[in-house]
Recover the amino acids of this structure.
């Protein structure tokens, strides 16, 4: 990664070789996490990639200042979340949002339409949650994040995460009841 | 929605289904070129944004110190080391409140040694003695001034502003001093005998 910033050596903040290698490995292991966090807010693949890349670029600039390297994931998740929320707020009025659909599971057109409708309802219900509850819902849905892992990543006590998760589920249930189509 | 309310079975099932759906929706991977794009982004970062401001601190501090030194040396040359920067000494004219309204107010000129005037780097202020004009004298001066203002002299009647002293009319004439020439003679050897 040294060659990235070789042209700026001197005044430009560059990382030494060990830090470069470490950052490279962090980039490999946390790319999906940052991307999913951004996607959970934006629901747009391109935007989510853009935000996650921006978060990594920011992380690179300040990586040498991070004393506790084990906190990198938490740091990256918070940064990505913040950037994604900022982008989401500025793009809130955007009309068309790409919706992820699992084509393998929904082969027919009718099923596809139903799945899309349910996904839209779910995202609306998540959007209706306060930000603190929304992040635990998203993080809980990202693979491999149990309460302990979420507490570490969000820098919160486990009890707080549990309580927020409970409130988030209740809020979600309420929103889904309101959004459910009456038949 | 309150903290103590329990969720119904229906809600529990709905939320569980929603969470499962959300988990599937979020099980996506970034594009294969994600890492390459991150690297390209870091390489394309404008260097200005990543300046090490600590490096700028030294020249800025040196420039500030130079300006301060130059300013001080200029002030030293203009005013000298012991000169006060500004003389804030002012004279206050205080009308004597003891004087009755009919009589002219006694004017007291006092050196401004009050607490309001502060002089930096000046020697300790020297107390000037109070000069008090006698009210009677100031009254006389005032009356004289008023009389002089309102008096019109009539030249045909021989009125004049000059003093009535006759001798003053004849101005002294300066005459050349007539001093006989001094002739030096040898001294008498006989001793005047």
């Amino acid at each position: 990664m040294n060659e990235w910033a070789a042209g700026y050596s001197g005044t430009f903040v560059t990382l030494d070789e060990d830090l470069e290698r470490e950052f490279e490995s962090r980039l490999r292991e946390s790319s999906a996490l940052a991307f999913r966090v951004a996607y959970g807010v934006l629901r747009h693949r391109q935007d989510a990639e853009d935000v996650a890349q921006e978060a990594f670029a920011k992380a690179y600039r300040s990586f040498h200042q991070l004393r506790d390297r084990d906190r990198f994931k938490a740091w990256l998740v918070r940064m990505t979340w913040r950037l994604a929320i900022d982008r989401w707020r500025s793009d809130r009025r955007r009309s068309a949002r790409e919706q992820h659909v699992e084509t393998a599971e929904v082969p027919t057109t009718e099923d596809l339409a139903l799945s899309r409708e349910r996904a839209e309802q779910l995202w609306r219900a998540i959007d209706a949650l306060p930000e603190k509850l929304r992040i635990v819902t998203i993080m809980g849905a990202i693979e491999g994040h149990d309460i302990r892992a979420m507490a570490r990543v969000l820098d919160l006590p486990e009890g707080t995460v549990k309580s927020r998760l409970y409130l988030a589920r209740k809020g979600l249930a309420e929103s889904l009841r309101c959004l459910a189509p009456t038949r | 929605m309150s903290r103590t309310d329990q969720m119904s079975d229906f809600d529990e099932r709905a939320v569980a289904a929603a969470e499962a759906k959300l988990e599937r929706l979020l099980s996506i991977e970034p594009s294969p070129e994600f890492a390459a794009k991150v690297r390209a982004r870091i390489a394309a970062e404008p260097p200005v944004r990543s300046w090490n401001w600590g490096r700028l601190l030294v020249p800025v501090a040196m420039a500030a110190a130079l300006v301060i030194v130059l300013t001080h040396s200029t002030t030293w040359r203009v005013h000298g080391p012991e000169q006060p920067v500004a003389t804030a000494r002012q004279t206050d004219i205080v009308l004597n409140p003891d004087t009755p309204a009919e009589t002219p107010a006694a004017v007291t000129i006092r050196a401004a040694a009050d607490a309001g005037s502060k002089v930096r780097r000046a020697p300790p202020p020297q107390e000037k003695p109070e000069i008090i004009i006698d009210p009677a004298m100031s009254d006389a001066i005032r009356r004289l001034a008023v009389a002089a203002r309102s008096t019109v002299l009539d030249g045909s009647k021989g009125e004049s502003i000059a003093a009535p002293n006759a001798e003053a009319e004849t101005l002294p004439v300066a005459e050349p001093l007539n001093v006989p020439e001094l002739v030096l003679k040898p001294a008498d050897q006989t001793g005047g005998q």
Remarks:
- Helices of chain B lie at 9-25, 34-43, 53-79, 135-150.
- The CA atoms of residues 125 and 172 of chain B lie 49 Å apart.
